[in-house]
Amino acid sequence: MRLHYGILLCDQYRSLRRQGIPAREALCGAMRKALPTILTSGLILTVAGFIIGKRCSIYYISSIGLLVSRGALVSSVLVLTLLPALLLLCDRRIIRKTKTY
Question: pTM for the complete prediction?
């Protein structure tokens, strides 16, 4: 469900790398551009799921709302923490070796 956050960050990163910007600077620029979108969307989905989970009296709908809320929160945190580290780690070994780079 939250896969497009990762795609947004990766696309920004690859775009900056194509311009010849060093990896760390490209990552900082990509984070600067993608951070507002990721935080806004992730926060909206997290809060909406939490509200539905707490306000709905039907057990199954409440459980799904809380599940969506937790999933959105975890995926947003992972995209903002783990993905940047993976991009830097894989830059020389995987990303730079691909033909579409």
Answer: 0.78
